[in-house]
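Late entry, written up from scratch paper. The run itself happened at the end of the previous shift, but nothing got recorded in the book at the time, so transcribing now.
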Amino acid sequence: METHYRSRHTERLILRELTHRVSNELAAVTALVAAARTRPGSALETLSHVQGALEAFASVQRLLYVPDVITCVDGCAYVRQLCRALTRAKLEEKGIELQFIEKPFRIDSDQCWRLGMILYELVTNASKHAFGGDSGWIRVELFEHGTHIECRIEDSGCCTTPQVSRGVGLSMVHELTEEMGGALQQTFGLQGSVSTIMLPRASIEDEQVA
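Output as recorded:
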């Protein structure tokens, strides 16, 4: 089964997302190592802490690999793994809880991977900008909605301005959503932000379940 989204524009978009993601991760690793130098405890304990964080970063990247085979996958299991990896890599140190509301759904593996990139960008963006150094929560919920898959990402952060500029990450979220024929709605306010994505389900072969 061939993927639905292969095009030169798509390949350039995915390359941009990868470049942006790696840049973010390198910056995060640099900050992690700098912070680890001031942690109390022995050098061995500090090294163990850094090693664990780097393994978490690697887990995120493995989950965002391009799928080798286009087939039907358990979308709930995939998002659960991604949320756990993001928690360890980005959120625990900041006191941010990532909640995943589990509802079973199946999805084309190529579409699932692209959805994973969108989730990565939205969760990363919220963790960097929504909380101002405070603790809080981010909630992820996905479910089947007729012929579409609905994804809702909500946070308890605080936006002090009525308009939020669209940075590189959010721009790519919009482009990735449009590439899949979907729609993205976002609201930002003093009580947190909500991003809702509606994606038409790609056709899948039900007998091919990973």
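The helical segments are 8-36, 43-63, 75-91, 109-129, 168-179.
(Scratch paper discarded after transcription.)
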